């Protein structure tokens, strides 16, 4: 099948080209004008808004919010230990404090998380709020209000609300390496 433009379609295309060129303050060509007579023109495009840098509050807040949502998605999908461990500092300052346990290293986290996986069939986290406070240098406090729902292998669905405070460290200027130093969870409330 061969495409043959109709006069109606050719007229429409010519009109669109003419309107486009008029919008660029160009003269209207006729259909007989050879394409070689049109010199390429550069367009000046104004910046869409303020420049974004790693110093911009929006930049780091969005990256940290994304980190929070990703963290909880790991729990919701029963991700392997390694996915969590690479998002934690690997030094003596690590502290994960839950109402029933305090974790200070990789071994502690593995034991705690194995217990979760052994007892909870499926879980989900609903994030109600995320508040971010910049501290000195590359450190931030992230306060998270979350609703947790879990379905254990034995028993009924469990639902509770928890407030959390995270102390995070950012390595590099692009915020692609965010690590949790402290993870403090308040007492769970039904």
The SSE order reads: HHHEEHEEEE
Give the amount of beta strand, in percent. 25-35%
Strand order of the largest sheet: 2-1-6-5-4-3
Give the terminus-to-terminus CA distance.
68 Å
- What Rg is obtained from the alpha carbons, in whole angstroms? 28 Å
Overall spatial form:
globular
Largest sheet: 6 strands, mixed
Q: How many helical stretches?
A: 4
Number of strands: 6
Supply the CATH architecture of the domain at 57-185. Roll
Question: What's the arrangement of secondary structure elements?
Answer:
Blueprint (H helix, E strand, L loop, with lengths): L6 H17 L33 H20 L4 H5 L9 E4 L2 E3 L2 H14 E15 L4 E14 L5 E14 L5 E9 L5
Parallel strand pairs: 1-6
Antiparallel strand pairs: 1-2, 3-4, 4-5, 5-6
Summed up, what is this model?
The chain is an alpha+beta fold and 190 residues long.
Structural overview:
The protein is α+β, with helices and mostly antiparallel strands. The chain has a domain at 57-185: Nuclear Transport Factor 2, Chain: A, CATH 3.10.450. It has helices spanning 7-23, 57-76, 81-85, 106-119; strands at 95-98, 101-103, 120-134, 139-152, 158-171, 177-185. A six-stranded mixed beta sheet has the order 2-1-6-5-4-3, with helices on one face.
Observed structural traits:
alpha+beta; Nuclear Transport Factor 2, Chain: A
